[in-house]
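fyi for ur records
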Amino acid sequence: MDLYLGAKVSLNSPLQYLKTNDPMPILRPPDLVSLDELGEIVGLKPMKSAEVRFRRGTFVIPLANLSLQDSEDAQA
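which gave:
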């Protein structure tokens, strides 16, 4: 999967928790982000993870749990 800054993504499987993208990260409940919600990649991190901005915050998500959305799908 070829991810880049500004790409629209969604979760492809539920997570056990969400890790915030703060200077002092905290774990949040997974129900803050639904599987059909679109987010935007705002940063790529080491260890195969990305910073993704969703409606309720920016979280560090493993790349294996993200699905790239086509721009045509996002407009529909």
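Helices lie at 71-75. thats all i got for now
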